[in-house]
Amino acid sequence: MRYAYYPGCTAKGSTAEADVSTKAVARRLGIELVDLTEATCCGSCELKVKNPALNAAVNARTFALAERLDLDIVTICDTCQFTFSEVLHDFRTRPASLTRANEGLELLGMRFAGAARIRHLLEILFEDVGVDSLRVDAGRLANLRVAPFACCHFFRPEVMRARGPAGTLASLITALGAEMIPARTVAHCCGFHALLVNKQLAVQAAARFLGDAKRAGADCVVTSSPLCHVALDIYQADAARLIGEPLNMPILHLAQFVGLALGLPERELALHRHFVSTVAVTAKIRFTEPLGLVR
Amino acid sequence: MLRSGDVKVKILTFRPEGETAPHYRDFTVPYRPQMRILDVLTAIIEEQGQSLTFRWFCGTKKCGGCGMLVNGTPRLACWDEAEAEMTIEPLPGFPPIRDLVVERDSYQTRYLSIKPYVVRSAPPPPFPEPLTHVEMRPVFKLLDCIECNLCVSICPSFGGATKGFVGPQACVQIAKAVFDPRDGLDRVAVLRQQSLFDCMTCHACEEVCPTRIPIVTQAIEPLKRACLVAGGAESRFLSAFVRNIRRNGFIDSKALFVASQGVLGALLDLRRGLRMFLKGKARRHVRATTAVTRDIERLFEAAGEPR
After folding, report:
1. Coil, helix or strand at residue A281
2. According to the model, what pLDDT value does residue B2 have?
3. Which residues touch B185 (CB under 8 Å, ≥6 apart)?
4. Cβ-defined contact of B214 to A158 (cutoff 8 Å)
5. Of A150, A204, B183, B230, which residue is least crowded by CB atoms under 10 Å?
6. Count of Cβ atoms closer than 10 Å to residue B52 Cβ
7. What does DSSP assign to residue A250?
8. Phi, psi at residue A39, to the nearest 5°?
9. Mean pLDDT of B217-242
10. Angle at B267 between CA B262 and CA B269, to 5 degrees
């Protein structure tokens, strides 16, 4: 299993632990991640508003880099996955867009033939690794009540719905032996994309979900998006202040959750890098074998 | 799927003449094949003689009147099948008037003030007006909107009937006029007051839209783009984001924070910044290699983006 690895900007900075834990889990599962060192930002929800053709060209450049390696791209960010999928869908349904993007790439001596496959880590776990092989010890997470929170971009936009997920965070949580708490409703969003535009509004959105997850009895939240992690973890104190009640809801990245199921040491999963302490989570994990032997 | 038996319904009802707060009432209705939510509500009145107020008119997904919250999801009562157990509540985001009827006038007044219709700057040419499908393509899907407000009811960014983000439904109406080739009104000033950049792009509006309109991609994002042309404070974050990509190749969150919040805003949030640094959340290399940024600069120039 070898992939072109695209962690995205946030997992390289504000949620560096997402990148660290992904690499730790990949090492353990025998997955080789080839860094796309020359790749750039996917443009998120902003570049496509500014200039859709430029957005297409910038992303075609990243696709071309992966195509050169003849590897599928693996993302660990739901928004990068959505942006890539949207651009790729545009290229496949409107060949003129691809031609235009390639005109830009020609200036750089590059070309995108259109063959790239963009896959999220969650899909890799379901389709290539197999969820069964992640269950080293079925009882390890049995005491843990986990609320899944995928980014809206992973399942709401038409292009993502049409594609259909290979698996969901909810089914992964159940498959790994934890109790899945369905706290998410259609009105929930973490608010990330409004954080630097209207902080009050964004924090309100985060607070709404975190409050509901707490009331539903979740011990922690697992997210497949580093952006949601920023809103739900780094801004959680603001959310608690807003609703006037303590939240103390640990937020785990997808790879950290899988790492815990595999028995990887906390240090390798960089749990200490969170704003909200994850001690309440690790305290509920049953370690049935010494950690050293698990590895 | 329900095939026989009873439909158990819990409805949040409210009588303004005698009650101070809404409360749930339970009903049981015998199931009939192909029963819709609307049929269940009608049976409660017509077959059980109960009093229940709700809005509906066409019964065929055209009038957009029968939107309500069913088991936590906004739906059209006329279009969705009844489930064995349902909790039905009025559409959130709007003040309830009575039982399942909500007050829509204030919201309507707000978006009517934005003139969500074609305003010509010159008298129309003689019939038939030369208008091609290519010219109308940007608004085709938007014409499907039935103004049911399901999207508004769950929008996490919606500011309400008087201020803040105007809501997805109004965006569809305005976009229909803005991108109609016959429209001659300069709308940028009014658009800039609608807090369009508050939209979190969560796409929940698209998920619940009964006519499957790509609201974010075909209404909200093009409207944001129209506002960008004029520049201004509301699009400061977006412009800073794009400049950041152009300069660094990727996002340097510290620089983006300062550029979008200003130096004062950054100083006020200094504690968070310091904690992020101590937690190892600061990017080590804030710029891609020169070869990469040169590539990006070339693409920006080729796309006609001025420096």
Report:
1. helix
2. 63
3. B115, B119, B121, B177
4. yes
5. B230
6. 18
7. -
8. -75, 160
9. 89
10. 100
3-state DSSP call for residue A172? helix
- Rounded to two decimals, the pTM is 0.94
Contact A13 B201 (CB under 8 A): no
Helix (H, G, I), strand (E, B) or coil at A146: strand
| Two structure tokens written together for A226 | 């580093």
Which of chain B's residues have a Cβ under 8 Å away from the Cβ of A85?
A: none
Quick one: three-class SS letters along chain B?
CCCCCEEEEEEEECCCCCCCCCEEEEEEEECCCCCEHHHHHHHHHHCCCCCCCCCCCCCCCCCCCCEEEECCEEEECCCCECCCEEEEECCCCCCEEECCEECCHHHHHHHHCCCCCCCCCCCCCCCCCCCCHHHHHHHCHHHHCCCCCHHHHHCCCECCCCCCECCHHHHHHHHHHHCCCCCCCCCHHHHCCCCHHHCCCCCHHHHHCCCCCCHHHHHHHHHHHHHHCCCCHHHHHHHHHHHHHHHHCCCCHHHHHHHHHHHHHHHHCHHHHHHHHHCCCCCCCCCCCHHHHHHHHHHHHHCCCCC
Give me the residues of B, 130-149, that contact A with CB < 8 A: none
pLDDT of residue A290: 47
Residue A288 forms contact with B (CB below 8 Å): no
Chain B residue numbers with beta carbons less than 8 Å from the beta carbon of A57 are 299, 302-303
Could you read off the pLDDT tens digit of each residue along chain A, which spans 295 residues?
999 999 999 999 999 999 999 999 999 999 999 999 999 999 999 999 999 999 999 999 999 999 999 999 999 999 999 999 999 999 999 999 999 999 999 999 999 999 889 999 999 999 999 998 888 887 899 999 999 999 999 999 989 988 766 789 999 999 999 999 999 999 999 999 999 999 999 999 999 999 999 999 999 999 999 999 999 999 999 999 999 999 999 999 999 999 999 999 999 999 999 999 999 999 999 765 544 444 4
Whether the predicted interface score ipTM is above 0.90: yes
Nearest to B228 among A49, A103, A186 (CB): A49
Angle of helix B221-228 relative to helix B236-248, nearest 10 degrees? Answer: 80
Six-digit token string for B202: 């969560």
Closest chain A residue by Cα to residue B243? A47
Residue that the structure tokens 């929940």 belong to: B204
Phi, psi at A191, each rounded to 5°? 90, 0
Question: How do residues B52-95 score in pLDDT, each as one tens digit?
Answer: 999 999 999 999 999 999 999 999 999 999 999 999 999 999 99
User: Under an 8 A CB cutoff, do A51 and B302 touch?
Assistant: no
Q: What are phi and psi of A276, to 5 degrees?
A: -90, 125
Cβ contacts of residue A112 below 8 Å, gap of 6+?
Answer: A60, A61, A63, A64, A67, A91, A98, A101, A102, A105
